[in-house]
Amino acid sequence: MIRLLAVLRGVLILLTGFLALSAVPGGITLLAGVYTPPLQQLKGSVFSSFLVPGLALLVVVGGTALLALVLLLRRKSLGPVLAGLAGAFVMAFEFVEVLAIGSPPGPAFVMQVLYFGIGLGLVCLSLLLLLVRSDPRALPLR
Predict the structure, then answer these.
(1) What integer pLDDT is reported at residue 22 of this predicted model?
(2) Are 8 and 133 in contact, with CB atoms under 8 Å apart?
(3) Around Cβ 15, how many Cβ atoms within 10 Å?
(4) CA atoms within 13 A on the CB side of 101
(5) Mean pLDDT value across residues 103-108
(6) Does residue 102 have a pLDDT over 60?
(7) Its pTM surpasses 0.70
(8) Helix (H) or strand (E) holding 139
(9) Predicted local distance difference test score (pLDDT) of residue 134
(10) b vs e for 33-61, b when ≥16 Cβ sit within 10 Å of the residue's Cβ?
(11) How many whole angstroms separate alpha carbon 13 and alpha carbon 69?
(12) Residues 71, 76, 81, CA angle at the centre, nearest 5°?
C-alpha cells in the first residue's frame, strides 16, 4: 500500500510540475504577444484579445499548479487538493478555448487534447490519492 501511495504521489508531482512549467510560460507568451494565434480566431467569441486567456493561463492554471507542486513537494495535505483543482482549471481552460477559437487541426488540436488529458489525470489521481489516504481499504489491491 505504501508503494502504491508513493507511485500515485510521484505521478501527481510529475503531471503537476509539467503543467506548472508549461502553463506559466504559456501565459507569459500570450500576454507578451510572443506566440499567439491570429486575433481573427477570436472573432465571434467574448474575447477581443489574448489578455484574459493569457492571465487565466498564467495565474489560474499555472499559479494553482505551481502552488500545488510546492505543497506536494513539501508533503502538505492541501497539495493533492490543489493539484486536482489545477487539473479542473486546465480542463475548463481547454473547454473555453475550444468554444472561443475552435479546435483547428494540427498542433493546436494535439495540445488541447494533451492538456485536457493532463487535467483529467490530475483530477483522477488527486481523488484517488485522497481516497486512499482517508481509507486505505478503498483499494482492493493488496
Answers:
(1) 97
(2) no
(3) 22
(4) 20
(5) 86
(6) yes
(7) yes
(8) none
(9) 80
(10) eeebeeeebbeeeebeebeebbebbbebb
(11) 6
(12) 75
SS (H, E, C) 32-48: HCCCCCCHHHHCCCCCC
CA torsion, points 105, 109, 110, 115, in degrees to nearest 10? 180
Of 50 and 142, the one with more pLDDT: 50
Length of the chain: 142
Alpha carbon distance 127, 103 (integer Å): 29
Alpha-carbon distance of 16 to 10, in angstroms, equals 10
The CA-to-CA distance between both ends of the chain, in Å, stands at 7
Q: Quote the CA–CA distance of 141 and 29 in Å, as a whole number.
A: 44
- Cβ burial, residue 2 (10 Å; 0-12/13-18/19+): exposed
Q: Which cell is 117 given? A: 488529458
DSSP assigned state of 75: T
- What are the backbone dihedrals phi and psi of residue 36, each rounded to the nearest 5 degrees, phi first? -135, 145
Q: Output the pLDDT for position 73.
A: 97
Domains and CATH numbers, the chain: 2-33+45-136 (1.20.1270)
Quote the mean pLDDT of the chain.
91
